[in-house]
Amino acid sequence: MFCDFTPSYPVADIADEEVHLWLIDTNDALPSKVLDDGLSLLSDGEKNRMKQFRKAARQHQFLIARVALRCILNALLNHPGARDLRFTTNPYGKPALANNSENIQFNLSHSGSIILIAVTLGRECGVDIEHIDNTRNIYDLARFYFHPAEYGTLRGPHNVPADILQFYKLWTLKEAFIKGEGKGMAIPGNGFYFCNTEAASPRLRVADPALAAHPHWLFHHQVYNDTFSTALAIASPPDTVLNISRRRLLFNPLT
């Protein structure tokens, strides 16, 4: 379970062997002043992106995600102000800090009301969260998107509940890896697969080594609140032992 965590800034430093996972629920009641003050932290580009979402709920989600990310990174970097942080993207769109002498890496995902942010020191990372939809046609999706070795782990309509959990475990693990590598759809979903998914850290097999910039990844999967499948990917040597620190942002990140 993700622990309840009411942050007081500055956040404690992050060590080389640590991964900080922050969970934010946009359903948490936030005073309008917090949202107004949060909007002032966003860059003009972020404000324009937010305006492109037609639904108010999606704008609300984007605002909270960007405010939380800025405040967390600002605290770790001991930066003068969250508003002054600058971001850049790689050719595939993966975001990063523009000025990052501390080599802080991060990744963000959202599903429904939940936002998940991963932060590491000097290690590429990817994170994914998906709401578990029990009505979804997982078999057609898996046949199209998964590697045959992964599709073969689904046992068919007579085993739907277990197959749904296996599908979302694989789905989020694959998305976390793709986001960690930062190559987007340049990495086809059937170009790699996971095995030993029942273990604490599933193993990755890549059909073409040229698809992956990092030879070794560590993975972690967890179901949150019986409703969301979450996965984390960290570029690390196979013998690395990481400390995953889960933190619930109950929040007023501006205080």
Automatic annotation (TrEMBL):
Occurrences of domain 4'-phosphopantetheinyl transferase (ranges): 125-226
Family recorded in the similarity comment: Belongs to the P-Pant transferase superfamily. Gsp/Sfp/HetI/AcpT family.
Keywords attached to this entry: Transferase
Domain of life: Bacteria
Gene Ontology CC terms: cytosol
Every 4'-phosphopantetheinyl transferase N-terminal domain range: 39-118
Protein name per UniProt: Uncharacterized protein
Gene3D superfamilies attached to this UniProt entry: 4'-phosphopantetheinyl transferase domain (3.90.470.20)
